[in-house]
Amino acid sequence: MSRNDILMHSVIDAIGSTPLVELSRITKNLDGKIFAKLDYLNPGFSKKDRIALQIIEDAEKSGSLKPGQTVVELTSGNTGTGLAIVCGIKGYPFIAVMSKGNSIERARMMSALGAEVVLVDQLKNSVIGKVSGGDLELVEKRTQKLVKERDAFRADQFQLVANFRAHYIYTGPEILKQSEGKIHGFCDFVGTGGTFSGCAASFKNYDSTIKCFIVEPVGAAVLACETVTKPNHNIQGGGYSKRDLKYLKPDYIDGYLSISDKEAIKTARQLAKEEGIFAGYSSGANIAAAIQLLKGPLEGKNIATIINDSGLKYLSTDLWK
User: Fold this and answer.
1) 3-state per-residue secondary structure call for 276-295
2) Which domains does the chain possess?
3) Rounded to 5, what percent of the chain is helix, strand, coil?
4) How far apart are CA 247 and CA 152, in angstroms?
5) Are 131 and 101 in contact (CB under 8 A)?
6) pLDDT band, very low/low/confident/very high, at 298 (cuts 50, 70, 90)
7) pLDDT greater at residue 274 or residue 126
8) Neighbouring-strand partners of residue 127
9) What are phi and psi of 20, to 5 degrees?
């Protein structure tokens, strides 16, 4: 029986089990296949709903989150949206702390879902729509302050193992089941590293020959040990020049791919026009990276990747101008 055949107790039950779709139009002139996991179809329109639910449920089970306690987390908007949904259903006040550089749609959505949204000014040399590592540091400082002031639970997506677990337990196995295990490669744009690590660990446990590639912005490929020349890139939700991502293990990583703003935008627009999938910058980067793999080391193979969030969250940005 499909989950769509039953009455759900709340929208939380609708998180996960998203479709896997072959992008046969984008790959029509390529030798190989791209399988896209449509995580933008989660209730909060992003893959981050998964970790929001896992973080809260793990904290409830461990006792680190008390009934009615305030939850606080920094966000580029997606994790915050997921936490707003989960906390609202479960009865926890939630404060989302976000840089003013992120798209305003995200702040409005979190507010509509009941979150208290705290917007943090960017550095003087930063540009709206382009959040740098320095901007994120300012958000982190404000987040730490609020946790102390409100005696809150920190839903720390960069540190809590629930981020990894959500994708290791669910996303990776879902992709394997939906593809009948017929994938040879995987790529994902790295923000916290949770999706990449969780899926990569799941895939390699199943078949150690599956190749897993980290996707980063051109000019901010710090995980590939490149010099950062473009901290103010367009691809929101990652590329923050953070090296200390807790769950990125060397055994999971088979290579690195860099995608420019132009490539991410072009591919996201192509994805919408040719495949009917209306997604954001990082999803465009993921598909562009998968195309790179089919044109190079994984020609003729099957590549899995994630559609991270909805294009509706970027209507005020350059993505759709």
Assistant:
1) CCCECHHHHHHHHHHHHHHH
2) 3-46+170-320 (3.40.50.1100), 48-154 (3.40.50.1100)
3) 45, 15, 40
4) 24
5) yes
6) very high
7) 274
8) 130
9) -115, 125
Angle at 293 between CA 266 and CA 26, to 5 degrees: 45
Average pLDDT (282-301) is 98
Bridge partners (DSSP) listed for residue 279: 310
Inter-helix orientation angle 104-112/78-90, to 10°:
0
Q: Which band of pLDDT confidence, cut at 50, 70 and 90, is reported for residue 3?
A: low
Q: Please tell me the distance from the alpha carbon of residue 113 to that of residue 80, in angstroms, as a whole number.
A: 10
The arithmetic mean of pLDDT across residues 89-98, rounded, is: 97
Q: Which two three-digit tokens encode residue 25? A: 């139009």
Closest of 159, 148, 12, 139 to residue 83, by C-alpha: 12
145/97 Cα distance (integer angstroms) = 11
pLDDT at residue 1 is higher than 60: no
Tokens for 213? 């590639």
pTM: 0.94
pLDDT at 321: 84
Going across the sheet that includes 33-37, the strands are: 20-22, 33-37, 302-306, 185-189, 211-217, 255-259
**Catalytic residues, which ones?**
48, 282
CB atoms within 10 A of CB 226: 14
SS3 assignment, position 35: strand
Give the Cα separation of 242 and 255 in Å (integer): 17
Transcribe 243-262 into DSSP letters.
---TT--GGG--EEEEE-HH
What DSSP designation does 228 have?
P
Q: Mean pLDDT throughout 196-209?
A: 98
d(CA 183, CA 223): 24
